[in-house]
């Protein structure tokens, strides 16, 4: 298809999960995709005529500057993020510090770096990965994660308001539980805690009223929409896609 024809896209955390599925979906839609991650071994397996891969560590400003200079993106998809397990007592300050750096400050850094070029070229679309979990709905043992993902919504609204006159749109995505490699790790870890993998799986699935978790491709479809001009009239919003989790 040609929904993203002529668009240059920079994706972080594109080696697996939602980032990977989104890079592929946007490439299929005709975009020139710059798919980046720290996991270069996995990135090497991401092959498509419209995809160029390179190492980009969102914790490192120099790495971001190189990536943005190469990609010169019209669309920036900030997908990198980490799920920390624990509550307000068990989480340490270091956990919070690390999560804010990876889940929030990384996006401040990439947006700050990519914005001037976007403005110069007449506009752009920034898509930040938040979560339904955070300011939309709470979940057990997700204090650090929920706090950072709520902050992503605040960041999104700020950027949207400040740059709307320069043709910049900024939205974020709030998925429910999505099948991905790190999600499988979380189910395995909870399974050890609960005594069975099946019980852990049931705990994750049962909170989705739809009766299943999402595929990464289902989230990628929303990313394609927000990247394209079809979404020209939406900015500053969390776009919830959560199998009915928070919509009851
Ligand atoms: P994942 O967690 O399986 O993969 C994460 C990727 O991030 C890996 O490829 C990893 O190498 C990369 N990464 C880690 N540190 C990085 C760094 N410093 N710089 C660049 N890349 C780095 O993928 P996922 O589960 O699809 O999650 C992707 C995003 O979606 C995250 O922000 C996550 O919080 C969010 N999210 C996931 C779910 C879910 O249930 N899976 C739900 C809501 C939101």
Give the C-alpha Rg. 17 Å
Measured as a percent range, the helix fraction is 40-55%
CATH architecture: 3-Layer(aba) Sandwich
Report the total helices.
8
Strand order of the largest sheet: 3-2-1-4-5-6-7
Strand content: 5-15%
At the fold tier of CATH, the topology name is: Rossmann fold
Shape: globular
Task: For the record, give the distance between the C-alpha atoms at the N and C termini, rounded to a whole number.
Answer: 35 Å
What does the main sheet amount to? 7 strands, parallel
Q: What's the CATH H-level homologous superfamily?
A: NAD(P)-binding Rossmann-like Domain
Structural class call reads alpha/beta
Mean pLDDT figure? 97
Q: What ligand molecules are bound, each kind once?
A: nicotinamide-adenine-dinucleotide
What's the number of domains?
1
- Which series of helices and strands comes N to C? EHEHEHEHEHEHHHE
CATH class: Alpha Beta
Low-confidence stretches: none
Q: State the total count of DSSP E strands.
A: 7
Task: Give an overview in words.
The protein is of the alpha/beta class. The chain has a single domain, classed as NAD(P)-binding Rossmann-like Domain (Rossmann fold). The chain contains eight helices and seven strands. The protein has helices spanning 17-28, 40-43, 61-71, 93-120, 143-163, 181-194, 197-206, 216-227, and strands spanning 8-11, 32-37, 51-55, 75-78, 124-129, 168-175, 238-241. It has a seven-stranded parallel β-sheet, sandwiched between helices. Helix 1 (17-28) links the parallel strand 1 and strand 2. Helix 4 packs parallel to helix 5. The structure holds nicotinamide-adenine-dinucleotide. The site of nicotinamide-adenine-dinucleotide has 28 residues, from helix 1 and helix 6. Nicotinamide-adenine-dinucleotide binds at residues 12-13, 15-19, 37-39, 57-59, 79-81, 83, 102, 129, 131, 175, 177-178, 180-183, 216.
